[in-house]
Amino acid sequence: LCPPGVLPLCCRPPAWDRATRPPPSPLQPPGIPCRSFSNNKIQVELDGSSGVAMMKLKSPPVNSLSLELLTEFSISLEKLENDRSCRGVVITSAVPKIFSSGLDITEMCGKSTEHYGEFWRAVQELWLRLYSSSMVTVAAINGSSPAGGCLIALSCDYRIMAENPKFSIGLNEAQLGIVAPFWFKDTFVNVVGHRTAERSLQLGSLHPAPEAHKLGLVDELVPEEKLMEKAAAVMAQWLALPDHARQLTKTMMRKAVLDRLVAHREEDIKNFVTFISKESIQKSLRMYMEMLKKKKS
Amino acid sequence: LCPPGVLPLCCRPPAWDRATRPPPSPLQPPGIPCRSFSNNKIQVELDGSSGVAMMKLKSPPVNSLSLELLTEFSISLEKLENDRSCRGVVITSAVPKIFSSGLDITEMCGKSTEHYGEFWRAVQELWLRLYSSSMVTVAAINGSSPAGGCLIALSCDYRIMAENPKFSIGLNEAQLGIVAPFWFKDTFVNVVGHRTAERSLQLGSLHPAPEAHKLGLVDELVPEEKLMEKAAAVMAQWLALPDHARQLTKTMMRKAVLDRLVAHREEDIKNFVTFISKESIQKSLRMYMEMLKKKKS
Amino acid sequence: LCPPGVLPLCCRPPAWDRATRPPPSPLQPPGIPCRSFSNNKIQVELDGSSGVAMMKLKSPPVNSLSLELLTEFSISLEKLENDRSCRGVVITSAVPKIFSSGLDITEMCGKSTEHYGEFWRAVQELWLRLYSSSMVTVAAINGSSPAGGCLIALSCDYRIMAENPKFSIGLNEAQLGIVAPFWFKDTFVNVVGHRTAERSLQLGSLHPAPEAHKLGLVDELVPEEKLMEKAAAVMAQWLALPDHARQLTKTMMRKAVLDRLVAHREEDIKNFVTFISKESIQKSLRMYMEMLKKKKS
């Protein structure tokens, strides 16, 4: 299935071979089914008995996707991916009312072009890892989830959202005067179809949870207090399938879209850096940040 | 985003740069916010204060898309596109009960191959301009809209239809024994998805307004007397977005389908001319016209 | 429309030219409008007056798609395709409660690689013929229809299913530890869209009839005793269209997906043979067959 040349992620030594690997080594100390590791901004807890990891974004006040958080996210995913005992991951937020506010604007404003490039590569890296993950990925969306936050949810295998009309989700980049990159768009189209994506992206819509459900942007709504219970139940359903077949199927469904970024990755970084460096765009972003500050105070 | 080589429309000097252009020159006479121009078959009125143009098809009895009307339509769009003060256009009909009956069959029957070629190029030109327009385009569908009339509606950003079950809309070419070209199909699939398009195109279905709404062929139904009011409200919502970002997003969504015709334009003309010149097809069209005449009398 | 080189099916001497052929020869004996032929596992009855053939799978206990049945199916389709008086075919089952249980696992288990290759070519052949058929194809799904049975239904122009929640349908390959090939997936995506296909394929879901209808996997549900009546009515609606235009439209909608298999046919066979020959897969299939045997007894 791989195009010629070495591809970083979607064509890595197939993670799905883990399915036929032996179970976790008996040398592993028994009675300690739960391992956890924590970075500055991400908490991970892996339940060795179920094979399910809980990954919590914890970067108050709004889980902005800073370079640091993005890097920790990618590293955490990689660790889990390489852990034989981990088969699924639930992604959620440790911050009340917000899943993630999306890309950290301060990383895109008043910095060097080198910084912009490094930042964008980290955004790509996270998406490439998450969208191609061989693990079952479930988003437990316990708060609002605009822009990059929405992308994270869209990249999972299943999306459950708290049934709270105050929580909204969407790719609202156009509202900020910027444009969602093509691979955000491709991911969105794969979930909601072309027409819904076209309209929502052009209007930069943030959809309240009930509307998001109606559009197919999220798969299910549950009362907030039932979110984790539901995520566990969904995970169990997906893990009932043989890993190998499920993973090959996932690859088949997502490969075309993953390959498109892989093939144009450097070009995409260059485009982003050029675009974001424009004085008109910088001005828009400064104004937006001013507005946010005023709103806060 | 542009492929190599100069492309006519979808890659023109980016119209979205108008967004960062200065507002209309102060030399422009104040107090005259409304300009209008009129051709034989199209009336255009531009409200300089809102930036919204109203474009009305006025070619009784059924707004057939003749070579003349198509040409006027393309010229009018170009004028508005080049007018700094125009940001959106509402397309509707000045003829009661009919939005547009589609391509004028008399242009396709008993004429020279040169004429068929010229006619088809004009159909392509209108679609290329409308589907790639940098303006917000809203179809206010105040009557039936078969075939080419449906294509015009499908090419807009938003479709509002009068809530009248007697009005129907669809790509019914198959009913006439002809085939919708691939770019009609691509535009249709982008709006309603593959399955709905496949079934509707094979059956040549004309969907009554309520069904068209259910299928996603139109976005909204309103009582006929509220149509213009609703179109203005929708337009205001879309114009609230920064032009630049909205336009880049629109291009991203539509470019693949636009490029496909651009790349095969001459071939598509040749195919059309060959197909329409066949005696069997000419006979079908003559029979259809006879039927229409009898129906009228 | 044809790519260079001779293609087997979707680019055969266009079957749609039959539309302009003369009606059945008057030399044909009058008063015998009904012809039938029967193979071991398929019964075909053609009603010469309506131009509609009824094709019944009759391979108890579950209409497994064995090499023999697949071959008879392809030959029957070809016969009808070449019969001027046949314009449409209804596909259904002569076995109670089951439409078809899908590919015959005994053909994929414990056989030679040559056999696997021959078997897979027969599966491809059936799909290429059915999905590209110039006839109107209606699936009258009068029982459960997993895996390859579902593919047959998906390849028709219209799907009517008995309104019985005990009957289910879906591409459940993942449940068996195997993976639906890309052209099963492409056919599925064309019917239900990318997201529904992604979720359903990864979970290997078998959808009860009401759910299948909600997802768009089948077009209509009717009480079981009305199934044939409804199929006839739907067929009449589709046959009301001129064949030529309908067939060209169908080709336009399906060609991309057909061409993809045609271009990769030998590679696809090789992939299948390699995959199915793996000891781990053979073991899965043996276990599955054991389970089925136990269930039976």
Automatic annotation (TrEMBL), chains A, B, C:
GO terms for biological process: fatty acid beta-oxidation. It holds the Pfam family ECH_1. Its EC number is 5.3.3.8. GO terms for molecular function: delta(3)-delta(2)-enoyl-CoA isomerase activity. GO terms for cellular component: mitochondrial matrix. It comes from the Eukaryota. The keyword Mitochondrion applies. InterPro entries: ClpP/crotonase-like_dom_sf, Enoyl-CoA_hyd/isom_CS, Enoyl-CoA_hydra/iso. Keywords: Acetylation, Fatty acid metabolism, Isomerase, Lipid metabolism, Mitochondrion, Transit peptide. Its main location: mitochondrion. It is an enzyme of class 5 (isomerase). It is found in: Mitochondrion matrix. Pathway: Lipid metabolism; fatty acid beta-oxidation. Transmembrane segments: none annotated. Belongs to the enoyl-CoA hydratase/isomerase family. Homotrimer. Key enzyme of fatty acid beta-oxidation. Able to isomerize both 3-cis (3Z) and 3-trans (3E) double bonds into the 2-trans (2E) form in a range of enoyl-CoA species, with a preference for (3Z)-enoyl-CoAs over (3E)-enoyl-CoAs. The catalytic efficiency of this enzyme is not affected by the fatty acyl chain length. This is Enoyl-CoA delta isomerase 1, mitochondrial. It comes from Drymodes brunneopygia. The gene is Eci1.
